[in-house]
Design goal:
single chain; 75% helix; 12 helices; mainly alpha; Tetracycline Repressor, domain 2
Amino acid sequence: MKNTTIKRPRRAGDEALWASRQEEILEAAAKLFAEHGYADTDTQLLADELGVGKGTLYRYFPSKRELFLASADRVMRNLIIQVDGSMTGIDDPLDQIAAATRAYLGFFADHPEFVELLMQERAQFKDRKKPTYFEHREANAERWRLRYRQLIAAGRLREMPVDRIRDVFSQLLYGTIFTNYFTGQQKTPEAQAEDILDVVFRGILSETERRRSDENKQKPEDRSQKTR
């Protein structure tokens, strides 16, 4: 695609039409990129798919690179919309986390092509300082930190750095969507979410084993003082 100046419409009705058309282009582009790969996706194929001329695509996205990155950005925006929507009307922070987990896994189970798109971005655009996925993750980090701080303050989570919780949870979900993509969806998103939530919320150690583990972590002098 040629590098051209994009003239956005000024009237509200035109803006709505522009946004609708842009969404249509990005939806079709995401599927083509996922199917053919970035290098082998010809913008003429996209134009034919949409029944428009390539000039129409130029108006919205002046290069294939910008079209691809906008498609990846759309994936993350729609993910956040779905996750946020799943928490609507839920007041309890733990229930919000559970709902968000189910929504996250469900989103990528319904759209495996989006996982492919995120992989291609990492492979094709190594010059980017931070991939789209992690840009959005960091942009939404503080509100998740707040949830974890509230739960710790209420005594519902044990005291630990909130970023440690956030990182482990995020990496667990991120890894799950790629495992599903490469090996096939072995369980429903709901079943996977329940497995993850059970292990993360409850842990794998019994109450007895947790107490024994905590005792073993105490300093030797502390243990000796208890026996005096």
